[in-house]
UniProtKB/TrEMBL annotation:
Domain of life: Bacteria
Protein name (database record): LppI
PROSITE patterns: PROKAR_LIPOPROTEIN
Region (Disordered): 21-62
Composition-biased stretches (Pro residues): 42-60
Length: 232
């Protein structure tokens, strides 16, 4: 019985020795499992959101900047601007919109003209009545249809303004209606027409246009100043 036990012991010792020799031999590479984890790829920081513009766009500003400034205003509920008041009597305008501003602008749309916007202004230098134009000249009547803007025209009656004036759009408020959005400002409202990506600043100091609106020279008969988009 001692012989098998002795042989087993010798085999165990020999195996241990061989294993020990293998680790001790020079030039024998022993691969070890790596414990280091691959670091995740770093991502660039997300760009900071563009701050909303706080000052009105200057003359000649890109129309995209004008739109951004108008849209940064405090939204006003259009439901409160569907009436106009004359001598204390309100008139329901239906789908039309009317508003006034602290600068003195009186603006109203007219569904009879595809909802186009017009404003009566107290221009410091309104265009004079053309020599070949007859009738009641209103130099501060500004029509803004989108592809065109006209300043000064003949009107035999108040037209759409016969209903009176709309509620006040406070400075800093923005009103969205139809193809338009207007923001009131101390210098006058700025209105955008989304269908044509054009804009007009209705200032008593002068009418400014943005986008593709450029002066038409000479102005057509019966109009003081005209701006139009010459491209489709």
């Amino acid at each position: 019985m001692r012989l098998p036990v002795a042989l087993a012991a010798c085999a165990l010792v020999a195996g241990c020795a061989a294993n020990s020799d293998q680790h001790g031999q020079p030039g024998v590479a022993i691969s070890e499992p790596s414990l280091s984890a691959t670091a995740p790829a770093s991502r660039p920081p997300a760009p900071a959101p563009k701050a909303a513009p706080t000052t009105p766009p200057p003359a000649g500003a890109p129309v995209a900047d004008v739109i951004a400034w108008v849209e940064a205003g405090t939204p006003a509920d259009p439901a409160g601007f569907h009436t106009a008041t004359r001598d204390g009597t309100p008139t329901d305008l239906g789908t039309d919109i009317a508003f006034t501003t602290a600068s003195g602008a009186n603006c109203i749309t007219d569904k009879s003209f595809n909802g186009a916007l017009a404003c009566l202004m107290h221009l410091t230098s309104p265009p004079p009545q053309p020599a070949d134009t007859y009738g009641h000249w209103v130099g501060g009547w500004v029509d803004f249809e989108g592809p065109t803007a006209e300043v000064g025209s003949v009107h035999g009656d108040p037209g759409r303004f016969n209903a009176g004036t709309g509620p006040k759009l406070k400075d800093g408020q923005s009103l969205r209606f139809g193809d338009y959005q207007c923001r009131a400002d101390a210098t006058g409202p700025v209105c955008v027409n989304y269908a044509r990506r054009t804009a007009v600043r209705f200032s008593n100091a002068g009418i400014q246009t943005f986008g593709c609106l450029t002066p038409v020279l000479p102005a057509p008969e019966g109009v003081g100043l005209k701006f139009a988009c010459t491209t489709a």
